[in-house]
Amino acid sequence: MSTLVHSVRLVDDGHVTDDAWILFEDGRVGARGQGGSHPDASAIVDGEGGCLTPGFVDIHGHGGGGASYDDGPGAIREARALHRAHGTTRAVVSLVTATLDELAERAAMVAEVAEQDDTVLGSHLEGPFLDPGHKGAHTASLLRAPDAASVARLLEAGRGTIRQVTLAPELPGALDAVRRLTGEGVVVAVGHTDADADAARRAFDAGASVLTHAFNAMRGIHHRAPGPVVAALRDPRVTLELIADGVHIDLEVVATAFTAAPDRIALVTDAMAAAGSDDGHYRLGGLEVTVSDGVARLDDGTIAGSTLTQDAALRRVVGAGVDLGLAVAALTRVPARAIGRPELGRLDVGAIADAVLLDGELGVRRVWVAGEAV
Question: What class of enzyme is it (predicted)?
Answer without folding.
Answer: hydrolase
